[in-house]
Specification:
heterotrimer, A mainly alpha (about 300), B mainly alpha (about 325), C alpha/beta (about 450), A: about 300 residues, mainly alpha, about 70% helix, C: about 450 residues, alpha/beta, six-stranded mixed sheet, four-stranded mixed sheet, 22 helices, 12 strands
Chain lengths: ~300, ~325, ~450
């Protein structure tokens, strides 16, 4: 692949540390962009700290009389968020893990095993991912409504109106994208490594688990971050496949803060900030894995 | 020579097996290998076929019928499509907006995300702060994006009009159908940049560090080194980002839905499908016809990509 | 006791987490399949389907949720039976209604009167409760009509309603010496005068798409009569007819007196402008300005009925959407559901609800008005004096027609009021397709 092809063309190192001059400009630029990205969010957080009467009277872009975290407490209790958080985690955590596991193996098989028909397989997965979610809702609903489940799995006695339905469709729907990304990453790995393993007599599982997977860490971390965000923020699957309010994921719980007639937007902002927290935490946890390499690359002389 | 990957040294092959000796086919797999393959490859394939492709084909069939989701399904031939192209006033604006979306994400957000990733990847200080900040818009849910749009762009109470000092002659950022699409595109780019940045960061990590030095050398060479050396090495990531950009553009939904349910100038194909299929309306045949149009556009892109991929495969 | 979502099956889920140790949960999840721990968590625990009545509620925000909980608690106390409430947020509940009714619906659920109910009755998704209705007392003939399906059977138990009218602030009218307009000419003259006084005559926010529908409904009912309006909503009259054009013409004449940029403004912002005395009037439903006015300003809020246009029709029709309850055809516990519905049709049950949610009015005419505030009393008088009651555009016509055609058409009209020809032709073409569907 390209990496190994160009690797040998190492340019001569110039004297002195590279790019010192540009550093200041780069910082100024990144800082400006970061602030521009952050400003809307800070404004939302600011709004969430102010009572509705005040912002209704003075507008959102005004100085505060009073700031408090009251809305956060209220948002958490009024929307029954605790239970909905749990629902979201029950879908998202297994969802991401299963998806990454199945997708990484499929990608491994497609990209590294030279199986016949692997391109067709890749095509099926990738194209499937391009489909808009809404396309498949009605047939899936009809299907889920016909699949019976025992009571201990679903109190609706069908796959419809159970978290299983949401989990299954999340995994199936996200598989395509993950297979596609991972297959692309795996193709860039030098083939010699795998061939060495074959010579050592390693089976398919070993070649997947112990040779290929560790090399995909940055890709898996990036994908895990994105997948967690997507599955967690998704509201459509929960909306269409669940009809019991208590089973809905946290994205739908936010709608509990939105009244038929009246919506306190500051309360909604507080709720939204709470809902965003888990995705931020996951990002902070996983970003280590794709930064670790970065510092390594920069320090290596 | 040692290649450092993921912080772990990988021992290079002791002997390089001669390539022609390696034959295709399952013969080189043991029975255990085959079992592993069957289960771990069969499961995702089954899931994908049963829960994605099967329903898709069913939807294509439904697009030739009229059905309210409850009663009988009646054959309608091409009737839904005729109605869609001729009499559905929201259809063509939706197509136009989807294409605008594609252009904005592809030409603005994606290059910008790449630029940010490259700058951060050069190992500047506070890189974690920058990364986290730039990724922040991605994690936001539908509700908060809609709220933020309202907060900033509302005609009467929004921050932007206050900032511009235009309270007396306010600009109707979200209500004017000639203007609101651009505002929403800005929001879409705001989110997309984070996606692109994170993928390129992971991609740059897998590029050989020595290559990055080539890009980091001082002076006029820097840009050339980047475009000639690093960017080609990033080809797999470029492909992924390209596909994700197309997906995001064609599936775009949540921002317009949060702002005004995708009406009054903010029509998108996905919104039309939702309005007709998901909501109380239940015009399933008609909605499926819109979905099929979206499907065909998507397949156009995917086939183009796969053809290129196929050629690349042959070259290798 | 009420199994509201605070202590319903969700509580069981929490217990299940504690039951399965955290470590085994993590291990189970990490194993990829999660098969060890997840099944127990993915289901609500319990011993099997309960024997109480289940009730699907779309009242998810705090005020109505509490008000309903009070009413159900009173029923449980009285009947010694359980009511298990399944609350889904308002928007999702509506979007999901088709799938909900065909899937595993609750025995009783909250919904709306009129065509929007009849539509589902026609699809055979609702249970006939004509027998119960024979025992009901205190509902007017107009209400009974709104609770009846196209087959002449009753399906709906009405609970509360809220009228639409023209809202304003008493103090503004008093200090400036404005008179309540009786007919359309006076209405226009008043708008002109307000504009001269530097006040925007009409507040209007139609970002959500539905608020402006109320104005159309009233213009149509005043100009063409209730019967024409309802026939139009049911697809029996043409949108290209001179009557409909006249409605849009009248509206176009009023638009210069409305707030500009209505398509980008939420109705809440519009109602706030009324409270801030930046605008003079607003056509809205009782709960809308009601919830935007602070307690001290609420006494200053007032309304008058939409003025007369054609003397032949006067002001006899009032737009007053009714909310209430339905029984699903697939109800598992029919007897318990009927018992609950019987209770909910009583004036006592309605008053318990209204105690916590005072922006509505009880449907049952025997409900005492003693606990009402001035606005509620006036609303009750307005509706009881009405000869006909309409429900609101999105409740008087097919849901698919309202949500995929009319909302867009009205927003288009507000954005560009001059192309009435193109507008009504477009609506009519789409109407034919949609109403031809069954």
């Amino acid at each position: 692949m390209t990496v190994s092809a160009v690797r040998v063309r190492r340019p001569p190192r110039p004297g002195g540390p590279p790019g010192r001059r540009g550093r200041f400009g780069v910082h100024a630029f990144l800082l400006a962009v970061s602030l521009a990205f952050l400003a809307p969010l800070l404004l939302a957080v600011y709004a969430s700290l102010r009572p509705y009467e005040e912002t209704a009277r003075d507008g959102y872009f005004s100085l505060p009389d009073r700031l408090s975290f009251d809305y956060y407490r209220q948002a958490f209790t009024d929307s029954g968020m605790g239970r909905h958080f749990l629902n979201s985690l029950l879908i998202t955590v297994p969802g991401v893990l299963i998806t990454l596991f199945l997708a990484s193996f499929t990608a491994f098989a497609v990209a590294r095993l030279r199986l016949r028909g692997s391109l067709v397989l890749l095509m099926v997965f990738t194209a499937g991912n391009l489909l808009p979610q809404q396309v498949i809702v009605t047939p899936l609903y009809a299907l889920f409504n016909k699949v019976p489940l025992p009571y201990w799995m679903s109190d609706s006695l069908t796959l419809y109106d159970s978290l299983w339905a949401v989990l299954a469709v999340q995994v199936a729907f996200q598989l395509g994208f993950c297979v596609f990304v991972l297959a692309n990453f795996m193709r860039t790995l030098p083939p010699e490594i795998l061939e060495a393993a074959i010579v050592d007599g390693a089976g398919v599982w070993t070649r997947y688990r112990h040779v290929t997977l560790p090399l995909c860490r940055p890709a898996l971390a990036a994908l895990g971050t994105l997948q967690f965000t997507w599955m967690y923020n998704d509201f459509l699957w929960g909306l269409v496949f669940l009809s019991t309010g208590d089973k809905l994921p946290v994205t739908s719980a936010l709608n509990n803060l939105r009244g038929q007639f009246f919506t306190d937007h500051n309360l909604l902002a507080a709720g939204s900030v709470l809902v965003a927290l888990p995705t931020i935490v996951v990002f902070l946890l996983l970003q280590r894995h794709f930064i670790a390499g970065l510092t390594l690359g920069a320090n290596k002389g | 020579m040692n290649r450092t990957t993921g912080g772990r040294p990988v021992t290079p092959p002791k002997t390089v097996a001669p390539r022609p000796a390696r034959r295709r086919g399952p013969r080189r797999h043991t029975r255990r290998d085959l079992a592993v393959l069957c289960v771990l490859l069969g499961l995702p394939v089954l899931l994908d076929l049963a829960l994605v492709w099967g329903p898709t084909l069913a939807s294509v069939a439904l697009s030739f019928t009229t059905w309210d989701g409850v009663g009988d399904i009646r054959w309608a031939g091409l009737g839904n499509y005729a109605d869609l192209f001729a009499d559905y006033p929201r259809f063509w604006p939706a197509v136009r907006n989807n294409l605008l979306w594609l252009a904005a994400l592809g030409l603005l957000a994606t290059p910008f995300g790449l630029l940010l990733a490259v700058l951060i990847d050069r190992g500047v200080r506070f890189s974690r702060f920058y990364q986290s900040t730039l990724y922040m818009p991605v994690v936001l849910s539908l509700a908060v994006v809609g709220f933020i749009a309202q907060l900033i762009l509302s005609r009467d109470q929004g921050a932007l009009n206050a900032l511009l000092g235009r309270q007396d002659n306010p600009v109707d950022w979200l209500g004017d159908p000639d203007l609101n699409i651009w505002m929403v595109l800005l929001a879409a780019c705001w989110r997309h940049t984070g996606y692109v940045m994170i993928l390129y960061l992971a991609g740059l990590k897998s590029v050989d560090p020595e290559l990055k030095e080539a890009a980091a050398i001082d002076g006029a060479n820097e840009r050339q080194a980047f475009f000639r050396v690093v960017l080609p090495a990033l080809r797999p990531v470029n492909v992924i980002v390209g596909v994700i950009t197309v997906i995001e553009a064609l599936r775009a939904f949540d921002i317009v839905y949060a702002v005004n349910k995708g009406r009054n100038g903010l029509e998108l194909l996905s919104v039309l499908v939702t309005d007709n299929i998901i909501g109380e309306a239940s015009r399933i045949g008609f909605g499926s016809a819109i979905a099929v149009v979206l499907l065909l556009v998507s397949l156009g892109f995917i086939i183009t990509y796969l053809v290129q991929e196929l050629r690349g495969e042959q070259r290798r | 006791m009420v199994h509201s979502s605070d202590n319903g099956p969700g509580g069981c889920a929490h217990r299940a987490v504690r039951g399965v140790s955290r470590r085994s949960l993590l291990r189970g999840a990490a194993a990829g399949a999660g098969a060890v721990a997840v099944p127990a968590l993915l289901t609500a625990c319990g011993d099997g389907p309960g024997d109480g009545v289940t009730l699907g509620s779309n009242a998810s925000d705090a005020v109505p949720k509490r008000a309903y909980a009070d009413a159900f608690a009173a029923y449980e106390k009285k009947s010694k039976k359980d009511v298990k409430v399944n609350t889904v947020n308002h928007e999702n509940f509506q979007e999901n209604i088709n799938r909900y009714l065909q899937g595993t619906p609750d025995d009783v659920f909250t919904w709306f009167a009129g065509y929007r109910m009849q539509y589902f009755a026609r699809k055979g998704l609702l249970a006939d409760i004509s027998d119960l209705w024979r025992g009901f007392d205190g509902f007017s003939e107009a209400v009974r009509k709104q609770s009846t399906g196209e087959d002449g059977k009753q399906y709906f138990v009405p609970y509360y309603y809220y009228p639409w009218a023209v809202f304003h602030r008493k103090s503004v009218f008093r200090t400036r010496g404005y008179e309540i307009p009786e007919n359309f000419d006076q209405y226009r003259a008043l708008a002109r005068r307000m504009q001269k006084d530097g006040l925007t005559p009409f507040a209007l926010g139609d970002k959500e798409g539905w608020p402006a529908m109320g104005t159309f409904d009233y213009l149509d009912m005043r100009a063409n009569g209730y019967d024409f309006h309802i026939a139009l909503m049911r697809g029996e009259k043409s949108w290209t007819s001179p009557q409909v054009r006249q409605v849009f013409d009248l509206w176009r004449g009023l638009l210069p007196y409305h707030q500009k940029g209505a398509n980008g403004r939420t109705w809440q912002e519009a109602a706030q402008s009324l409270q801030q005395k930046k605008t003079g009037m607003a056509v809205l439903g009782l709960p809308h300005p009601g919830q935007q006015f602070t307690a001290e300003n609420r006494a200053d809020l007032d309304f008058f009925p939409f003025p007369e246009i054609d003397p032949a029709f006067g002001k006899e029709a009032v737009e007053a959407p009714v909310d209430g309850f339905l029984m699903a055809k697939k109800a598992r516990n029919r007897a318990a559901a009927e018992d609950l519905l019987k209770y909910l049709a009583t004036p006592q049950a309605e008053l318990i609800y209204l105690k916590s949610d005072p922006n509505n009015v009880a449907v049952n005419s025997r409900a005492g008005t003693g606990s009402y505030d001035a606005l509620q009393k006036k609303a009750a008088r307005l509706v009881s004096g009405a000869r006909q009651i309409s429900q609101f555009m999105d409740r008087d016509t097919r849901p698919d027609f309202a949500s995929t055609v009319l909302i867009q058409a009205i927003q288009q009209f507000i954005g560009d009021p001059d192309d009435i020809d193109g507008l009504v032709n477009g609506i009519e073409r789409q109407k034919k397709q949609i109403f031809a569907a069954d």
